[in-house]
Amino acid sequence: MGLAAGFDYEARLTQILSSVNFGFQTVGTITHLPFKGNPKPMLGRLPKSKSLMVNKGFKNLGVDATIKKLTQYKFPIPVGISIGKTNLPVINNQNQAIQDIISTFVSFEKAKINHAFYELNISCPNLYGNVSFYPPKKLETLLIAIDKLKLIKPVFVKMPINKTNQEFLLMLKVISQHCPKGVIIGNLQTNRQDVSLDSDEVKKFPKGNFSGKPTYEKSNELIALTYKNFGKKLIIIGCGGIFSGRDAYQKIKLGASLVQLISGMIFEGPQLIAQINLQFIDLLHQDGLTHIHQAIGLDNKQRRKITR
């Protein structure tokens, strides 16, 4: 189990998360310039929906302060750095956004931080301006610029879940042709009419988008789609709506090699991480498996056998 980006955005937790049984974590999302966050409210609870309203908009200390904090530590578990564009009006077009993102990568590459991977967060829906890397040509322009950095550590792209399957596949095709080793599926629920959301709870928050259970079904659908079409090219990290070991295990059986959460821990408590790890053992035994690796994509593989 990993901690997803969006929780430890000030890099405070790298020394303690292993104590609650996290196996890896992501710091950030970090941007080139610091940002104090969107106007309040930045967070809110939707208990009936098992969801959080999220509207922080890449609140973080900025790359320089984050590097200064992280260089003093050794990490007991693998740590990833999530990178996105600075959420300020001065970054208001595609070229500026690309240069801003590249500058953050370059700063981390020069720093003496023993992190394990990068996340490229192109899917936060709570940002200023009209910059978007969803259109394949714009995504390719960004990835070409990152290719030129010749990064040694792997890059995973944080994906949206509000695109059609066809749009999603076009994005995956571009990603598979460039440096990223995989994708993280996925980010927040932007559809306020989604049946998993309680409409009265949604009305309390005119701004922001939603994490937790409202992301679960679409995340699973896109994990299965990605594994079926790009499972041999891209590693999949499953994220969205994990509140139990069975939730996490389902993402693995659909094709995820790793899983992340935030909202489940907020609602259920930090003991959830250890509980999930223990539940994995029973779930593996129920499927006649001995190692979690054997479960990756199992449902997709079984469906293929049935259709042949």
Task: Describe it.
- With 308 residues, this protein is of the alpha/beta class.
- The chain has one domain (2-307): TIM Barrel.
- The protein has ten helices and eleven strands.
- The strands form two sheets. It has an eight-stranded parallel beta barrel, surrounded by four helices. It has a three-stranded antiparallel beta sheet with strand order 3-4-9, with no helix packed on it.
- A hairpin with a 4-residue loop joins strand 3 and strand 4.
- Helix 2 (94-110) runs parallel beside helix 3 (136-147) and helix 7 (245-254) packs across helix 9 (272-286).
- It is globular.
- The mean pLDDT is 94.
The outline comes out as: globular
Number of strands: 11
Provide the CATH architecture.
Alpha-Beta Barrel
Helical amount: 25-40%
Assembly type = single chain
CATH fold description: TIM Barrel
Arithmetic mean pLDDT? 94
Distance between the termini: 34 Å
Structural class: alpha/beta
The parts where pLDDT drops under 50 for at least 5 residues are none
Main sheet properties: 8 strands, parallel, barrel
Q: Which strands sit side by side, in order, in the main sheet?
A: 1-2-5-6-7-8-10-11
Strand content: 15-25%
Integer count of domains: 1
Secondary structure tally, helices: 10
- Rg, please? 18 Å
CATH superfamily: Aldolase class I
Cofactor: FMN
Function: Catalyzes the conversion of dihydroorotate to orotate with quinone as electron acceptor.
Keywords: Flavoprotein, FMN, Membrane, Oxidoreductase, Pyrimidine biosynthesis
Protein name: Dihydroorotate oxidase
